[in-house]
Amino acid sequence: MKLCIDMVLRSSSSISLVRRLSSPSSVPSHVRIGPSVRNLLALYGLEATVVPASGPKNVLLKTDLLKYIDQKCLKPLGMDKLLQSASTHDRQSSSVSSKPQQQQQPQPVSQLTSRQTRGTKFFDVEVTGMRRTIAKRLTSSKTNIPHAYMTSTCCVDSLQRLRSTMKQEGQSVSLNDMIIKTTAVSLRKVSQVNGIWDESRSCMQIHPTVDISIAVATDSGLITPIIKSADILSVVEINQRVKDLAERARMNKLKPEEFQGGSFSISNLGMFGISHFTAVINPPQAAILAVGGIKVAVSVDEKPTQAIDLTLSFDSRCIDEETAAKFMSCLAEIISNPTMGVV
C-alpha cells in the first residue's frame, strides 16, 4: 500500500493537487489532524469524520488512517478524480470566502455614527524648543540613570503652627518655602545626596553649596530656577527668591546661570491636589524630591494629624539605599521639629 501511495505522489502535478485538496479550510474546525493525515485524506477522497480517531483529545493519527485504508482495501484516486475534486474544492472555497467580504464592506462615511467618528479626529501640536529639550533630557534620564525611590510620610503639624506664628508676626511664607528650607538643611547634614554625577569620570561630585532647583511650570514648558545657598537663607528670603524667580521664569526673563546647574531638585504638586508621585531625576543631579499635598493621617497616639508624602528619586550609581534613608530620616526629623534649622 505504501508503494502505491508513493507512486501516486511522485508526480509533481499530483503533489500540487493533493496540497490544494488538503488545505486546512477543507477540514472541519473541530477535527484535529496533522498535514500528513490531510494529504492522505485528499489522496483517497475521504472525510476525516468517517475515520475512527484514537489519538489524545480525539486527534486523528496517521496510523488510524492507514489502518482504515487497509481494512477497507481502498486505493488512491486517479488523476481524473483528483482534478474533479480539486475543481469542486476551489469553487466551494471561493463561494465561502466571498461571503465575509460582503459582510465586512465598510460603511459609507455618511452612515457612520458620531460615536464611531469621534475618536478618529486628531491634530498636531507644535512643540517648542524648550519642550524638545525637556523631552530629550527626560528620555536620557530615564534611559541612562538607574532610578531608585524612597518614600516617607511626614507630619507637618509643627510646620503649620510655625507658619501661623510667623504670619502673625508679619512674615508670610508658604509650606513650600518651608519644605525648601528643611530640605536644604538636610542636604547640609547629609552632603552625600547634594551633588551631581560626572559621566566623564564615572564618579559623583559633592557640591560645596546647597543650590536647590525648583520646578516651575510655564507656557513653553517646565523650567527649574535655582535657589542658591538655600541652607543659609531664612525662610522669608527663600520666599522672596522663589516669587521673583517664578515670576521671571514665566516671563522668560531668567538668565542662564539662574536655571542651569544646581545640586538638588524639588518638584511640588501638592497645590494641584496630588497626594503622591515620583519625579524624574534632573541630570546631571543625583536626586530629586517629589512633594505631595497635605492629607489627614493618624498619629501613633491615634490622633488626627496633617501629613505629606515625600518621595526621593535618586541615582543608585552614587547614592545607596542607606544614604538615601539617612537623608529622608533627617528630613522627617527636621520637619517634625522645625526649630532645629528652619528658623
Model description:
It is a single chain. By secondary structure, the protein is of the alpha/beta class. The N and C termini lie far apart (102 Å). Helix 2 (12-21) runs parallel beside helix 5. The strands form 4 sheets. Strands 3, 6, 9, 10, 11, 12 and 13 form a 7-stranded mixed β-sheet that branches. It is built from 12 helices and 13 strands. The chain is elongated.
Shape, please? elongated
Quickly give the structural class. alpha/beta
Oligomeric state of the chains present here: single chain
Provide the β-strand percentage band: 15-25%
User: How many strands appear in the DSSP assignment?
Assistant: 13
- Roughly how much helix do the residues carry, as a percent range? 40-55%
Please give the count of helices: 12
**C-alpha Rg (nearest Å):** 37 Å
Overall mean confidence score, pLDDT: 81
Uncertain regions spanning at least 5 consecutive residues:
5-13
Note the gap between the termini: 102 Å
Q: Secondary-structure element sequence?
A: HHEHEHHHHEHHEEEEEEHHEEEEH
Mind summarizing the main beta sheet?
7 strands, mixed
Keywords, separated by commas or semicolons:
about 15% strand, about 45% helix, alpha/beta
Topology overview:
Blueprint: H1 2-9, H2 12-21, E1 32-33, H3 35-44, E2 59-60, H4 62-72, H5 79-103, H6 114-118, H7 129-144, E3 147-155, H8 157-168, H9 175-189, E4 195-198, E5 203-206, E6 212-214, E7 216-218, E8 221-223, E9 226-227, H10 235-250, H11 256-259, E10 264-268, E11 287-291, E12 295-298, E13 304-315, H12 321-336
Parallel strand pairs: 1-2, 6-10, 10-11
Antiparallel strand pairs: 3-13, 4-5, 6-9, 7-8, 11-13, 12-13
Helix pairs in contact: 2-5, 9-10, 9-12
